[in-house]
Amino acid sequence: MNQTPILHVEGINKRFGAVQALKDVDLSLQSSEIHGLLGGNGAGKTTLMNVVYGLYKPDSGQIFLRGRPVTINSPRDAIAHGIGMVHQHFLQINTYTVTENIVLGTPIPHRPTMDLTQARDKIRALSDRFGLEIDPEAHIEDLPMGARQRVEILKALYRGVDILILDEPTTNLTPQEVDSLFESLKLMVAEGMSVVFITHKLREVMSVCDTISVLREGRRLLTAPRSELSEEEIVRTMVGSEEALEDSMLFSEQRRDEEAGIVREEIVLDVSDMRIADENGVLVDDLSLSVRAGEILGIAGVAGNGQQELAEGILGIRPLSRGRVRIGDRDVTGLGTRQILHLGVAYVPEDRLQDGFLPTASVAQNLILGAQRRTPYSSARGVLNRRAITETAVALIQRFHIRTQGPEDMAATLSGGNIQRMMLARAFAHPVRLLILHNPTSGLDIPSVEFVYDLLLSHKREGTATLLISDDLDELMLLSDRIATLYRGRIVGVLERSAFDKYTIGRMMSGVEAHD
Amino acid sequence: MTTSSFIDFAALVMLAVVPYILASQGTMLAGRTGLFIVSQEGIMLVGASVGFLGAYLFDSLLVGVLLAMLVGGLMGLVLAYFTTTLKLDQFVVGLAVFFLGLGLSSLLFKVVIGVTLQPPIVPTLDAIPIPLLSRIPVLGPILFRQNILVYLSVLLSVALYLLLYKTGMGLALRSVGENPKAADSLGINVTRNRYVTAVIAGMLMALAGAYLPMVYTGTYTEGIVRGRGWLSIALTFFGGWTPHLILLGSFFFAGVEVLALRVQVTSIGIPHQFLRMLPYLATILVMIFAFRGVRPPAFLGQNYDRESRTSS
């Protein structure tokens, strides 16, 4: 490989305030390769590519395209140089058709007919060539996530790019959609395009990339052809610690099974015939499930298929239009959220920044939130007992390894992983019979993920019932005893652990019922 | 109803429809870039006041109209600056501009004219019969024997429809009100689109106000707009934020207005205060049903901050 790389960056530095997001990064992308950019949250993968795409201006460093130095000041420049980027959050106009979204911002003849036939033909041709199946006439809002992503890719291809950057492209896709995305990428590379694939998922990188680079804390630590790398070597570079990774649950399902304990007879949560509707329509319908003590029930599904509503329905945050919820032997339908939480229920919501914590309150205050009216935190008259709060907080900070200056620190100063530890500490500060978690590990680094899994399993052994809602299928399959798959607010099917299969669940995620 | 009284009625509706069309199309256009204007009543009052004064002092309706639109455009510019550049809450800024207009309109009139027993008068707009078409029985006198602004406001609606739905410029403009971040990422200038539509909206609203003294009374009186500005907000929703349905809805609103006036004149024993309430009552009733299924621009009422992209 001594040909000139199609894209080469050299000595890139980028600082955001006090954080050095990129430190002297070099990276070369060869033509006709899929280059995996791997790293945990905050490793600098997306920042580096945003520099290449003209969204961020680097503090220093140089970008070379086909051996020639270039300056890229905006996404427009990047596209003009043949670089396209598909962001993790799609930038699309929901009410427009696929064609309209793709041509938006390109010169369209201002004739009163706005004739898009030519554009449509070009889109169809691209779609056929790369296996990116799409109906150009469909409206974006009617499309599933996989198709919406194909629109983003087509948007870049339509503008004639030959370098395509994909930022975490497999989030929210079913396994089938992931496979077909990979097929398309291979076709593009076969035609001479180059692809940068940003991800934190090791297995994806191993299955599709030709070359792999690992970033950690703003530095590029490793670049090598896939064939020369082992999974373990990559993870060790990503994590950077000397911890014994052989023990990691991420690599050993055996360990999960050893530590999982048994599922008991006692039913802790019983939901029957739940229906939730609001002005936007029916969000959850005809839904029944039960979770036993010591059981982890996984809820799979593409994001936005009723997961959050289900959790909020159980907790009394959303009123039910029909159905009942029982916790233990008590019917809690219609009870207030506070009463339900007092029954020994803990909830860690998905959007922890929005729903989960008070950014401007102290860490200590956040840790006792929800229990603030109970003794010993409050006196009988309702005055907060500062000392008791601080004592509890100090204990929890230690037990959950929350990295903070101290209990009086403002919660917003914590990093994402530490906020999640804080939320879990709060959830587990009191005896928990029922635990409801929604995407508990999204955005966490590997040691934190490991920590969450350990915590879940140790409580499972002690008899806690867990409802684990997650977009990460690997996580669900690793931890759950059973997995129920949600599609448009209904349960399509429930699988026992012995019958777990990625593709079966993937089919259910797109609404196809299991045949067995 | 006899044919001739129907023609009278319909012709009056055609006359009354203009301010509704102009103000609502302005509201719609700015809303399509995400700017939700609530200052219609204030801008229309200023338009009425300035339009009248211009016409009176320079002895020309055209000068009055142009001056009104100039001031209206400036008010639109103020709205755009405070919401788009300074990123202040659109509703609060909108109400402030409404109150500004409310005070400014009376103040201007009092400073220039003073308090008089005999209000100064300008001539009203002439009807311009369209050759041949105006001779069609029934339809001719209703549709084709109207003043210039009646024709123009209908043409404006058609033009806006074509612009928004049949040109690339319209596609880009609407995208700003739906998802400015997406539009920005594709090189569409969000700020410029908002400023341009805000200024045009202000001009249309002021024109709507200037129309009133030039057609009905020949003079400016306090409160001459009589809530038409507020109604045009409801009308914009009623029309689903689309030019063609707003045009249709304007006829409905104008129809109710004329009807209430008519019943008032014939005096059938119902207190006239009650009848004057009718347009608003009808609005509420219609809204209850029409609001369902209406889909305003997704980003309506929000301000776009490009910097926030870095947080995701």
Topology, element by element:
The complex is a heterodimer of chains A (516) and B (312).
Chain A: E1 7-16, E2 19-29, E3 34-38, H1 45-52, E4 60-65, E5 68-70, H2 75-80, E6 83-86, H3 98-103, H4 117-130, H5 145-158, E7 163-167, H6 175-190, E8 194-199, H7 202-208, E9 211-216, E10 219-225, H8 231-239, H9 253-259, E11 267-278, E12 281-292, E13 296-300, H10 307-314, E14 322-327, E15 330-331, H11 337-342, E16 345-348, H12 352-356, H13 363-368, H14 386-399, H15 416-428, E17 434-438, H16 446-461, E18 465-469, H17 473-479, E19 482-487, E20 490-496, H18 502-509
Parallel strand pairs in A: 3-8, 3-9, 6-7, 7-8, 13-18, 13-19, 16-17, 17-18
Antiparallel strand pairs in A: 1-2, 1-4, 4-5, 9-10, 11-12, 11-14, 14-15, 19-20
Chain B: H1 3-31, H2 40-58, H3 61-85, H4 90-112, E1 127-129, H5 139-143, E2 145-147, H6 148-166, H7 168-178, H8 180-185, H9 190-217, H10 228-238, H11 243-266, H12 272-290
Antiparallel strand pairs in B: 1-2
Work out the helicity level of chain A: 25-40%
CATH topology of chain B: ABC transporter involved in vitamin B12 uptake, BtuC
- Within CATH, the superfamily of the largest domain in chain A carries the name P-loop containing nucleotide triphosphate hydrolases
Widest sheet, order of strands of chain B: 1-2
What features would you describe in this structure?
With 516 residues, chain A is α/β, with parallel strands linked by helices. Chain A is built from 18 helices and 20 strands. Chain A has a six-stranded mixed beta sheet, with helices on both faces. By secondary structure, chain B is mostly helical. The model of chain B has no long low-confidence stretch (mean pLDDT 90). Chain B has a single domain (7-114, 148-293), classed as ABC transporter involved in vitamin B12 uptake, BtuC, CATH 1.10.3470. Chain B has helices at residues 3-31, 40-58, 61-85, 90-112, 139-143, 148-166, 168-178, 180-185, 190-217, 228-238, 243-266, 272-290, and strands at 127-129, 145-147. Chain B contains twelve helices and two strands. The chains are: A alpha/beta (516), B mainly alpha (312). Chain A binds chain B through residues 16, 55-56, 74-76, 88-89, 91-96, 100-101, 103-105, 107-114, and chain B through 162, 165-169, 171-172, 174-175, 178-179, 181-183, 185-188, 295, 298, 309-310, 312.
